[in-house]
Design brief:
Distance between the termini: 56 Å
Number of helices: 12
Oligomer: single chain
Mean pLDDT: 90
Radius of gyration: 20 Å
CATH superfamily of the largest domain: Aminoglycoside phosphotransferase (APH), C-terminal lobe
CATH topology of the largest domain: Aminoglycoside 3'-phosphotransferase, Chain: A, domain 2
Shape: globular
Number of strands: 9
Number of domains: 2
Length: 359
């Protein structure tokens, strides 16, 4: 076992063994990758869903994504989906990691995996990391994030080969069915009051589903720490997005949902999900209304029925938090955030009910 693999194991995540790394190398070679030597792997910290490893052969670097080894929920860790959408977006103007190979054979490393080229860039995950940036740079990052999301929403999904990536209509209804179904799996151990809030939010959304006025590629999990940023620190060079990552929740649907999720993630409960003060909940960033305005200024789609999308987004994040707690209870996780995610669930459900009631 390599030193990097040992470090991954020490972090509470099953490491990639030498046998598994040899299997990954064989798959990469079969896709035309010329490896300079044996692969080593290092866990990239910060994931709460798919596991992300940095692969090195002594000369070149890649990133491998694979689902958790235990405690999975249906459709929540879809690396094949990530691979397909990033492959399609190559050359579209939306920055994505270059797709290398997808392997759906579970027998090689215990689950499917996708390998992408390594993209240099800075990740801003914590409030402390955001505080290292000047106000001017921070404002530039918000502009870059908004412009990149607007560009994504204007990509013709049919023209890039994603016509069958998801149904173009009835997005909100499908999302409500999906997340309500996930809740029934991961929320079974919640207390009666929490389950009552979830039931009320699902019922309320069923009565007030947002209308769909636009159709496009929806990332599903868009915020600062799901991007790699180019931050040159030179005033004449504004910040830009080097790559948008973590596409496992992507689909074809209503782009307004992406904007709503950006706003939902501003809820302080996100810190409980992640396990530390996050960049995206920092008061240095615009509030929900400011983020929506920045997106509109970047030329994004019209934000039709944003309140209803916000309510649906709060349900989604509550279910994601419950899923993390579900895996923690199954013994499939360790570390900060896994043991506090469950505390976020009632906070998010209550916020969803509040915004739905105010609409």
């Amino acid at each position: 076992m390599s030193r990097d693999a040992s470090a991954a194991a020490g972090a509470g995540v099953p490491a990639l063994s030498e046998t598994e790394l040899a299997a990954v190398a064989e798959v990469m070679a079969g896709a035309g990758v010329d490896l300079a030597g044996p692969l080593s792997a290092r866990l990239i910290a910060g994931g709460r869903s798919n596991l992300t490893f940095r692969l090195d052969d002594g000369t070149s670097t890649w990133v491998l994504r694979t689902p958790p080894r235990a405690g999975r929920t249906p459709s929540a860790h879809d690396v094949a989906r990530e691979f397909r959408v990033t492959s399609a977006l190559a050359g579209s103007g939306v920055p994505v990691p270059p797709a290398v190979v997808l392997c759906e054979d579970d027998s090689l490393i215990g689950g499917p995996f996708a390998v992408a080229g390594f993209v240099p860039g800075r990740t801003i995950q914590t409030a402390a990391q955001l505080d290292e940036l000047t106000d001017t740079t921070t404002d530039g990052v918000v502009t870059a994030l908004s412009s990149t999301l607007a560009a994504l929403h204007h990509v013709d999904h049919v023209a890039v080969g994603l016509e069958r990536f998801g149904r173009p209509d009835a997005y909100a209804a499908r999302q409500l069915t999906r997340w309500a179904g996930q809740w029934e799996i991961v929320g079974a151990e919640a207390g009666p009051s929490v389950r009552a809030m979830a039931d009320a939010l699902v019922e309320g959304l069923g009565d007030r589903l947002p209308r769909q006025a636009a159709t496009g590629i929806v990332h599903g999990d868009y915020r600062i720490d799901n991007t790699l940023l180019a931050l040159d620190g030179v005033p004449a060079v504004p910040p830009s997005v080097s790559a948008v990552v973590d596409w496992e929740l992507s689909t074809i649907g209503d782009p307004v949902a992406d904007v709503a999720m950006m706003c939902v993630y501003r809820n302080a409960a996100l810190d409980l999900v992640i396990g530390e003060p996050t960049a995206w909940t920092s008061p240095r960033l615009p509030d929900a209304a400011g983020l929506a305005a920045a997106y509109e200024a970047a030329g994004g789609v019209a934000l039709v029925d944003l309140d209803e999308h916000l309510a649906l987004g709060h349900l989604k994040l509550a279910v994601i938090a419950a899923g993390i707690d579900h895996r923690h209870r199954a013994g499939a996780t360790s570390g900060p955030g896994f043991d506090t995610a469950g505390q976020a669930v009632p906070v998010l459900l209550e916020a969803g009910l509040a915004v739905l009631g105010a609409g």
